[in-house]
Write a structure and sequence with these properties.
Elements lengths: L5 H19 L4 H19 L3 E5 L5 H9 L4 E5 L3 H7 L9 E3 L2 E2 L4 E13 L4 E4 L15 E12 L1 H4 L8 E5 L5 H6 L2 H4 L2 E9 L10 H10 L2 E6 L6 E8 H4 L2 H10 L18
Parallel strand pairs: 1-2, 1-8, 2-3, 4-7, 8-9
Antiparallel strand pairs: 5-6, 5-7, 9-11, 10-11
Length: 278
Amino acid sequence: MSDAPADARDAGYRYFANLLALRARRLPRDVVGERVESTFRDLCRELEPTVSLEIGAHEARFSRWIKTDVPTARAIAFEANPHVHQKYADSHADSGVEYLHLAVSETAGTVELGIPREFLNEEKGRRYKKPRTNRMASIASHVRAEEVETVSVPSTPLDSFLEVGDDDVVVAWIDVEGASGPVLSSGAKVLSRASLVYIEVESEPLWEGQWLDGDVARFFADCGLVPVFRDNQRPHQYNVVFASAELAAQPRIARLCNAIYRRAGASAQTARKPGRRR
């Protein structure tokens, strides 16, 4: 664990999040989101990862992209929702992606997965339904879900599933609908070896007992990763890119960050290839 007081680390992250949120709000939300994602992908491509992880994969779009642009990477995609996995499994037969029906958590065995099927929108005073293949299945419970289908699914801790060595270059895409606490806690060893992580966070709780953005940032700080980019999906929900300290300290990362929020619209351009994390 870091020797820095938790409140100092929290304040540092809040400064980053608030500063870039102000810049992000000056641009259309979809523009900022596309720039953050494309910059993350550009860096992934240049790092030439040996291992890519997609946790909460749904159709495994990121893993498919990795196998196209970095064919030598081992691309592992975890999807816990059995209905979603069944829908897309055949399409991955020849993709090179390891598309696995597995939840990632601290449990080795079986966990209960909730698939929200009906929500109450209190502001509009109406309910709306979701199909079984919706993107909101989670091992956490959504505070606004009126109807939830519960299924038992296989689960594995990330650190038990995968070992990475000193020569491995790891990147990850994580979108686990309020379950970042048990997911990240299960993989501290693996994620400490990561060079880049793209993860969805919330600043206000939508799921029971969930880790908020500050909790996620503290975890990654203890893993040696720092936040470098963010988008602005919704008022209290956004994606953050964390980078290894070695990568984040390169001057070009600050230039890429500045390009993301530039009003002129020029795409973030990469220059020198970043070194592998050791």
